[in-house]
Amino acid sequence: MVTRHLHAPEATASSMAHWLMKSEPHAYSWEQLVEDGSTHWDGVRNYQARNLMRDDMSVGDLVLFYHSNCKPPHVAGVARVSKEGYPDFTAQDPSSKYFDPKATPDDPRWMMVDIEAVSELEAITLPELRTNPSLEGMPLLRRGQRLSVQPVSEMHFKVVCLMGGLSEIPE
Fold this sequence. Notes:
By secondary structure, this protein is of the alpha+beta class. It has 4 helices and 6 strands. A 6-stranded mixed beta sheet has the order 2-5-4-3-1-6. The chain starts with 17 loop residues before the first strand and ends in an 8-residue tail after the last helix.
């Protein structure tokens, strides 16, 4: 059995990393992000996704905003990381559905980033993504890939943006 490790995309001083972040549209939709302008990305309770947000996401990184758990799942827009990882305060709020009794101010356990809306895309459905040979190897398309935050290569990011009707990739 081959174990595949998900690593953060390569980023240099002159480039940015690219990501995909999943949200269920009934919980927080692309349209809500556009209306709000920006939001904190709270409630991530997977250590690998947390580590990506905490250790690898930087201000200016671009994000494919993906609607999951809907029919059909799809990429809805492009967002930008506007604040680097910081403690997810919902983990320490007993009234939050994301409350974690093991999280403390000294050991917050869970992290979040802030994102802002950049550009709406024509919806690109999961079946459309799967049939594009240029997206071979994209983590989202791997069997069993369920992480809510995952890296995207620059090439895959560009392909998805072009599929969504952008003629230029946001900077």
